[in-house]
Specification:
Blueprint lengths: L9 H37 L2 H29 L1
Helix pairs in contact: 1-2
Amino acid sequence: MIIPKNNVHLPHIINVVIYKSMKELVEKVAELYAEFQKDATAQAENGNKAAGTRARKASLAIEKAMKEFRKASLEAAK
């Protein structure tokens, strides 16, 4: 990222980076949730224990991604 010397565009550049990051995080959460849903359903409907392990792991990844999104969202609101 190139930062101009006069920093006139710096707030705009920061906002673009934050919103891009937020968009990527939303996509990441959607992917993780799709994985979670598939594995949780396999455990609930078929009793697949390995799928239950994967679902629990995905739930932790979702939690982490949501925390990252919250930080980015709060930063964007400033």
